[in-house]
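User: I'm preparing a small set of examples for a lab meeting where we compare how different chains pack in three dimensions. I only have the primary sequence for this one, and I'd like the structure in token form so I can line it up with the others. Please keep the answer compact; I'll paste it straight into my notes.
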Amino acid sequence: MSTTSAAHKEFGEGPLARAAALVYSLLVLEVLLVLGAAPGLVLLGLLDRDASNVPLAALCALPAGPAWSAALYAWHRRSRDLTELHPARAYLRGYRAAVPGVLKVWAPWLAAMAVVGTTLTHRDAAGVPGWWMALLAAMAVVSALWVANALVITSLFTFKTVDTARLAAYFLVRSPRATLGNLCMLAAAVAVGAAGAWVLPCLLASVVAAATLLNCRPMITLIREEFTA
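Assistant: Understood. Below is the structure token output for the 229-residue chain.
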């Protein structure tokens, strides 16, 4: 009996088994994440690459928020026990739980980015000076880092929307390493999209979600220790 238990334990804790479990979770969550964002991705693919479609592009991104949040939740709840490996179940549970709170953060942010994007792409028509354009671009970057924090917080914790917004802003300064890491991932995604390979970030969304959660681990720990009972 002890020999059988030891063999079972060795199999479950071996590097090959853990690697297979990680790949399995990556693939399952990638499929679910893409399916969750699919309505917007399909519509986005049908849009012409024209500046006038910036507000519509923002609208197409609406389903991506809850899908991303559910992936964060599933990664956070991922069990080390291979007999309890249920990424799809965790994803669906996270999706149902997070949708109301996520949309309260995600939808206003998308609306604000639609306004900023429209202004930046219609500079001449708007008559905006160059220094104001630079300021708007900087604000867009900072707000993207803020919403990254906000989505992590609202996916893993239950706070009022205003408290989530304040914590997300607070940890931009409190966790500079996490902020820098998110900035690097944002820059990489923008560079890939600018190169025309915008599909690649979608295909690696599950990996990016796992990396984001790992990068924000100090923030998650501090929130659990200082802001939850």
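A couple of notes for your slides: The CA atoms of residues 7 and 13 lie 10 Å apart. Residues 20-226 form one domain.

User: Perfect, thanks.
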